[in-house]
Amino acid sequence: MNVFGDKWTFTSFGESHGAAIGGVLDGVPAGLHIDLDLINYELDRRAARKRHVNDTETTRKRDVNDTVTEAASYGTSTRAFREPDEVEWLSGVMDGVTLGTPIAFIIRNKDARPEDYEFLKHSYRVGHADKTYEQKYGIRDYRGGGRASARETAARVVAGCIAKQQLAAKGISIQAKLIQVGAETDPAKFADTIEAYRQEGDSIGGIVECVIEGLPAGTGEPIFNKLQAELAFAIMSINACKGFEYGTGFGGVTQPGSAINHISGGIAGGIADGTPVTFRCVFKPTPSTPKAGVKGRHDACVATRAVPVVEAMTAMALANLVLS
Amino acid sequence: MNVFGDKWTFTSFGESHGAAIGGVLDGVPAGLHIDLDLINYELDRRAARKRHVNDTETTRKRDVNDTVTEAASYGTSTRAFREPDEVEWLSGVMDGVTLGTPIAFIIRNKDARPEDYEFLKHSYRVGHADKTYEQKYGIRDYRGGGRASARETAARVVAGCIAKQQLAAKGISIQAKLIQVGAETDPAKFADTIEAYRQEGDSIGGIVECVIEGLPAGTGEPIFNKLQAELAFAIMSINACKGFEYGTGFGGVTQPGSAINHISGGIAGGIADGTPVTFRCVFKPTPSTPKAGVKGRHDACVATRAVPVVEAMTAMALANLVLS
Amino acid sequence: MNVFGDKWTFTSFGESHGAAIGGVLDGVPAGLHIDLDLINYELDRRAARKRHVNDTETTRKRDVNDTVTEAASYGTSTRAFREPDEVEWLSGVMDGVTLGTPIAFIIRNKDARPEDYEFLKHSYRVGHADKTYEQKYGIRDYRGGGRASARETAARVVAGCIAKQQLAAKGISIQAKLIQVGAETDPAKFADTIEAYRQEGDSIGGIVECVIEGLPAGTGEPIFNKLQAELAFAIMSINACKGFEYGTGFGGVTQPGSAINHISGGIAGGIADGTPVTFRCVFKPTPSTPKAGVKGRHDACVATRAVPVVEAMTAMALANLVLS
Amino acid sequence: MNVFGDKWTFTSFGESHGAAIGGVLDGVPAGLHIDLDLINYELDRRAARKRHVNDTETTRKRDVNDTVTEAASYGTSTRAFREPDEVEWLSGVMDGVTLGTPIAFIIRNKDARPEDYEFLKHSYRVGHADKTYEQKYGIRDYRGGGRASARETAARVVAGCIAKQQLAAKGISIQAKLIQVGAETDPAKFADTIEAYRQEGDSIGGIVECVIEGLPAGTGEPIFNKLQAELAFAIMSINACKGFEYGTGFGGVTQPGSAINHISGGIAGGIADGTPVTFRCVFKPTPSTPKAGVKGRHDACVATRAVPVVEAMTAMALANLVLS
What we know:
The structure is a homotetramer. By secondary structure, the first copy, chain A, is of the alpha+beta class. The first copy, chain A, has helices at 36-47, 57-63, 130-137, 152-169, 190-199, 227-236, 257-260, 303-322, and strands at residues 3-4, 9-13, 20-26, 87-91, 93-94, 97-98, 103-108, 173-181, 206-213, 241-246, 267-268, 271-272, 277-283. In chain A, the strands form four sheets. In chain A, strands 1-2-3-7-4 form a five-stranded antiparallel β-sheet. The relative contact order of chain A is 0.20. Chains in contact: A-B, A-C, A-D, B-C, B-D, C-D. Chains C and D meet through strand 1, helix 3, helix 6, strand 10 and helix 7 of C and strand 1, helix 3, helix 6, strand 10 and helix 7 of D. Strand 10 of chain A pairs antiparallel with strand 10 of chain B.
């Protein structure tokens, strides 16, 4: 199924090289002013759109619509000359204000040229979901990854941005950032580290940390729907994410209880305690690299582009818990 | 809410010092023979029941019904003279065979003596959920932890064991084990390591690894309900669990793509690829230690008792995905 | 599945001749005082318990636990010497006040004597669900109807009474009554009408009308979850119910728009308009009659006992819409 | 919420005078050939598109996009010069075959001219949902009914037609027809009866009967999700529907058990018994008539256009029960 949430819900649809991707939000209350500029800003963050100028034609074709791989479409570079994603609002908003009815939107896929993907019709790419889709459905949209493409996360960013605006109105903020690239933990050196891997035709993973502030004490359900379980579910659904931890996390395993029991991570018994909630998640390196035989400029560290998606999924998880 | 799953569902109920804990399973098909001995065996694993003989009276009172803390009721020791948990089946089973109707069961709380907990009526225990429950509900069952008690996991173990039996009939097996205690990774030395922390009146965390074999390729949904997201949700709902990872996990962050991209962890694009699925999760040390002012024999490493609970939650997550 | 509601939920379990019937309520807020006397009163209404003195022994055995048929256990008469249903509360309530945690309760089945039903092991009763259960599950609890027994509605009445108490605290009241028995619409003559059918060894249907007052304008969802759709779903789930209508109903078909368009039935576009909501539902006659070969005193009009069940289901439908 | 179903799901969106109406289907399996002609045929049935030629300009403006009222857009007449509804497929289908991914589609609203509705900005229409929407949301799309417009049912017809195609592949057929108009039960006289009401500037209700054939015995859940409850929920969500009955229905109330207990209506204990399932539903007359002050040609009997919507909702209810 393709729905996130059960009270505040987001339904995602669209293949990366079909007519459009998009989504439907249900449960957003009436009367909210939507800041469209903020949505475009978040889409640009995800697309890392402003930076790149000299991609090869080969790369440009491959990258259009983010379709290369589960992972490859995040990154600090590569998408030159690209038009920004344009959101078309179909319903639920009148004069910039929500009506309380379902909000549907689409982002058209441009310049899709499915014929460029004919060569994938009868082959699976290493490290991608091509094969499991075919195992599951017996059929797949071979045109550039279909639903498994990271392009699908653009729709999440739109939905998450509306959730963030609702949360902000309640004093709840979400801030994610990259805190580690490979073994490097000094942000000043991230760009150089990534560039070094790119030069080698290789790629590297990263860790994103996210801090939630202003979450009311009492948020979360005590047994199965613990706050940390809801967050883990949301975050682990992001392409290329391989782990989630909060509070003392995995690192805490070497520390005695006497040293770390004061650390709550903002949650006790599954319920927010009113202090900031901090969690971390890890993204693997993209498999689409020159070293692996994929030509053209590549995303050497997809974790960089995951940052706004982490915020979006966090916002949707919280919207479902506190806004409905 | 207190329901796990949406097709194969388990509803959990019961306070640790109320009349009983228990649950209702809905969606278990008719005609399944339930192995009651296996359920009792799993309950004993969780209770670590057979080992201990000389707890102090103080401890015995505190530990009855597992109520001490979110974390403390797991462990390699401590529950002397305890009667085994006895499951009473209320519905859904006739002559040991399921009817296709809801399976309800209870485990009575014995010797609860709520008066022993009067002292908690107006105080919160450090590192426990006492305060957040009161923040959420404005009221709490102060008798030994209520729903936040690890005793609640006994009901999960019963439900998970039925799920395991259903999965086994389809050739799917689940096997969890402790792979790290503190910094120690040699299983031969876990007991000594734990004993050393106990001697110091302290506690230590641990990491549990779980392997799923026989899961059909195609299991899992590609977008939000990715297999790894469903597993993370199930596992992060266990008391004291602080992190979840699969495949290359957090450790993979220092490795280049060229070194680790062949590792799938059994999942691609959120969908099982037919190879074994392996994940790990970390449990923090209990806050209830002599060093923290709690008297009596204590569970120096609750991760040991988490092992059957990890299997139970994994089984339920898979049951909901493949058995309904 | 055996769950009603998605926010305020009630899970029902139990075979009529197993150990117990019961249920779990999830989503009832903390701090509600439960009026246990009111629950017992509603159970007596459903059981029509106080009236009867001279049933034959044959009937008494058959009727214990309400198991005779889908329909037969409602009625104005018949259950002599019966002990009242006793509710045992297992969780979620402390000192008569809800904790915000799941409320589990059971009603033990007394004097079940499943051996009396051995004769049903290999036969289906006419007009009952024996055969469809076996078609669905390949197995059934032949002991007196199992889950298809009207006894299951006792658990609904308990749950519905808690919902009613919550609704009453918000100024919402629900009142159902019998308005037609056969062709008779004068309540003063209902008893005689029913008695006449009983004398003939036959049975007769009835119509129940229900009025909801105090429902806030705006209750209900405009498209699929229209208030009338939610009510119809709840009411049509009652054993022996064959139809639901509100506002102008079926009778309105012969009236021109100009004559009846002022009648809203309390709902416009699926949403409550703040005026009383009135609906009607019809119950078929029981198939278990002397005329049909079933011996002993019988329920000649099960619609009479459906009245508290109609209120209970209405209360649960509204609880799910307005209390969660 | 705007979702129908929980396994086979349809999410509906769109205001009648916004950019588009549309929907997302989730849970349709991969590999289904979609018959687009059949979908267009069903849309024409709902729009009653082929018949009319000489509507007044006033009527044409009012009727564009079906927006007049909850009820008025069904009917045997009136929509001259109208372009057929054109479905644009956005995702989930490649070369006419489903991919197993969400199927999203839109129908653009043409010639909407919201300025024609300015006069409604500060007034409520009698018998419509204008006021309850505003009570619920505090805001409404005053342009021609918004979501309350019967135009929304066009999206249901598209989704239902896909469900019907899936069901047909399993040998399940659904056939609805008008069986009563006012007091008239002879189909040969329906047209004249309706025309007579139109001449008087008035309107009249009707009863639709629907027969499901080929439904496997065992379909339906025995307690809350009885087959009749699921059907009633689906049907009562249709605009202007005021009642649902099956089997002996309301008419059976005057018959003794001995006369009607052999009638199952295709369902026993909530579960299909393998025989045809027959139900009936009633539609009220439109409030938008010359007699009520609404000018122009009007739909004198909206029940006629409800027929394909009844089939669509039935198909979706069954798809959710048997196809997922």
